[in-house]
Specification:
This protein has 321 residues and is an alpha/beta fold. It is built from 11 helices and 12 strands. The protein has a 7-stranded parallel beta sheet, sandwiched between helices. A 5-stranded parallel beta sheet has the order 2-1-3-4-5. Helix 10 links the parallel strand 10 and strand 11. The radius of gyration is 21 Å and the shape is elongated.
């Protein structure tokens, strides 16, 4: 008898990849569009494994779903799932950490180039039928810059390799550094303390997950420690940055610019303090996207959920149960 699986919520255009995976494994499945705790509780009775995009799993939800054994997030972050509660209830939480590594690293590089070389500002000037490069001054030589990376996982490493190839000095911080030891391929990264990365970098790029310990880690105090004219790139999580403080640091001229793909509230609110700042380039949470990455994400998410439904070993577990 087929094991039931579900997709709790999803805003993708279609479910072709998921359907193919579940059918291949002989699994019945259904797409819901859950938004609340009650939606999850009412719809997931009897479900063993599910793919999940935004719907929040809380202790209340876990209490009401005794059959649930696995949740697989569409993406890397799992901040919409109470991991402690999941572990307590014996629910394995998994993610898909490797579907868009190169895409996110490329977007970070694109944002870096945009704000350092002031491409959007220059384009706007030309579109207005003006032609004066001096308005964009000063622009620093990229190869003389020290790039600081906070979070040295897959994406942070990929970004580090890109900026290193451009001649930048690369320094970095991570809570975990064991994977960097004796790694000849990454020997160019100087691992430093968080404070050293903040104070010594000409540009800081965020590549870490969001948790209660680092929420709004980039704030008024942090920005004050950064070099005058330094830049910030964030392709990780909007909650890592205090947006009011960032806006103030940009408008005051203390920061030279910011390139962000993620914000605290998405879509970006109409009254966001980040709107209308010339040296702030914002993209709509698109860093993960390419045609290939989107397909990989859907396939890998469904494959992991199928493993959970069939009682097989997970590929990418996040919590311990």
């Amino acid at each position: 008898m087929a094991v039931k699986v579900a997709v709790t919520d999803c805003d993708h255009a279609n479910m072709i990849e998921e359907d193919a995976v579940f059918k291949k494994n002989g699994l019945e499945w259904k797409l819901f569009q859950c938004q609340t705790e009650d939606d999850l509780i009412n719809n997931l009775q009897g479900v063993v494994a599910c793919c999940n995009q935004y719907a929040k799993f809380t202790n209340k939800v876990f209490d009401a779903l005794p059959d649930l054994k696995m949740i697989v997030r569409y993406g890397v972050g799992v901040d919409n799932i109470d991991l402690e509660a999941a572990s307590k209830h014996g629910v394995q939480v998994c993610n898909v950490p490797d579907y868009g590594t190169f895409e996110v690293a490329d977007q970070a590089l694109a944002l870096m180039m945009s704000i350092v070389r002031k491409v959007p500002m220059a384009n706007e000037q030309v579109q207005k039928k003006e032609w004066d490069y001096a308005v964009m001054a000063p622009i620093q030589r990229l190869s003389t810059m020290t790039v600081g990376i906070i979070g040295l996982g897959r994406i942070g490493q990929a970004f580090a390799k890109r900026v290193h190839a451009m001649g930048c000095k690369v320094i970095g911080y991570d809570v975990y550094t064991e994977h960097l030891k004796n790694n000849a391929e990454l020997s160019f990264i100087e691992v430093k303390s968080l404070d050293e990365v903040i104070t010594q970098s000409d540009l800081i790029s965020l590549h870490c997950g969001l948790n209660k310990d680092n929420a709004k880690m980039m704030n008024k105090t942090t920005f004050a420690k950064m070099k005058k004219g330094a830049f910030l790139v964030n392709v990780a999580r909007g909650g890592l940055v205090d947006e009011d403080d960032l806006a103030e640091a940009l408008k005051s001229g203390h920061l030279g610019g910011a390139g962000i793909d993620v914000t605290n509230k998405e879509p970006l609110q109409a009254d966001s303090p980040l709107r209308g700042i010339p040296n702030c380039v914002i993209t709509p949470h698109m860093a993960w996207y390419s045609v290939q990455a989107a397909s990989d994400l859907k396939t890998k998410c469904a494959e992991e959920a199928a493993r959970g439904a069939l009682g097989q070993k997970p590929r990418c577990p996040v919590n311990k149960i």
